Amino acid sequence: MRLRSIPRLISNRLAPYRASFTCTNAQHFNLWCWLLISLIISSSGQVKALTCLMPYRLAYWTTLRMIRAKV
């Protein structure tokens, strides 16, 4: 089961945290939202299992790179 977009309710709830991310086009914020959603849905905490729930455009290496950067 892959999700296509971040649900509006979740997006609205996480909007106050957008200011914490300094990326100008909000890509880090969007990736963070996807990580939270996939952690809630998935029973596994493995990155490969989490990226299976995300859209295809969010590759495994993109997610892993953000986690390692501790952004």
Number of strands: 0
Radius of gyration: 12 Å
Indicate the percent of residues in helices.
40-55%
Main pleated sheet: none
Secondary structure category: mainly alpha
Order of helices and strands: HHHH
Count up the helices.
Answer: 4
Flag low-confidence runs: none
What's the overall average pLDDT, rounded? Answer: 79
- Amino-to-carboxy terminus distance: 27 Å
Shape: globular
Approximate strand percentage: under 5%
Structural summary, described in words:
This protein has helices at residues 8-14, 27-41, 47-51, 60-69. It is an all-alpha fold. The radius of gyration is 12 Å and the shape is globular.
Fold blueprint:
Elements: H1 8-14, H2 27-41, H3 47-51, H4 60-69
Q: Summarize this, please?
A:
The chain is mainly alpha-helical and 71 residues long. Helix content is 52%, strand content 0%. The longest helix has 15 residues, at 27-41.
Q: Which descriptors would you attach to this protein?
A:
globular, 71 residues, 52% helix, 4 helices, single chain, mainly alpha
